[in-house]
Amino acid sequence: MIDIQLVKKLRDETGAGVVDCRESLEKAGGNITKAKEILRKIGVIIAAKKSSRQTGEGAIGVYVHTNGKLAALVSLRSETDFVARNNEFKELAKDLAMQVAAMQPLYRSSKDIPSEVIEKEIEIETEKLSKEGKPAYISDTILDGKLRKYYETVCLLNQPFVKDDTRSVESVIQEKIQKLGENIEVGEFVRMVV
Fold it and tell me: Cα-flanking dihedrals φ and ψ of residue 182, to 5°?
């Protein structure tokens, strides 16, 4: 039997439901760190299920650099106005605006990149690899890695999160979906420099 105080502590730290906390603690043998990992895996599944829901509400995240010469706006959408008014949601919108200002993404995700841009990138990297004389079986692996790195540079959701570079922006959003209990998606974003 798992101690209710452990369940409460895990719930406070993760925002997950009581039943999910109890079950993950049971699976982890009472180890909170392992229980968090289990909840994170559950959260990815929950987020995937919620991703098909419509997002008709939301908020605009705004970041203006202290010198006043750099700003970014991000549209962050949610299913309900209840979540859109939530302070964690608003903070996420602001953090994403800071992300856009700092990291200068060109696209929301790799799905938004026009095929001709991807083809051109593949052509450039393939040419570099052939000049280096890499065998084809190694070139494919290297090319995949280079494309992944390109996506991390130009796609907002693939970028390392500006406040914690051990996680991607997408994983931070997935955690918020789990915690707030509904779908969240990034809409349009813009970065402005004077």
Answer: -155, 165
- C-alpha span between 83 and 174 (Å, rounded): 15
Query: Can you give the residue range of the structural domain that contains 25?
Result: 4-50
Round to whole Å and give the CA distance between 167 and 151.
15
pTM: predicted TM-score of the whole model, two decimal places: 0.69
**160 strand-pairing partners:** 168
> Is residue 158 one of the residues assigned to a domain?
no
Helix (H, G, I), strand (E, B) or coil at 132: coil
pLDDT at 5: 84
d(CA 137, CA 159): 28
11 plus 38 within the same structural domain: yes
Q: Return d(Cα 31, Cα 138) in angstroms, integer.
A: 42
When computed from its CA atoms, the radius of gyration of the chain, rounded to whole angstroms, is: 20
Q: Residue 100, SS3?
A: helix
Given a cut of 50, the residues of the chain with pLDDT beneath it are none
Same domain (yes/no): 101, 61? yes
Q: Which two tokens stand for residue 106?
A: 């060109």
Residues 63, 92, single domain; the answer is yes
Please check whether residues 95 and 185 belong to one and the same domain: yes
**Pair 191, 61: CB distance under 8 Å:** no
Same domain, 99 and 180: yes
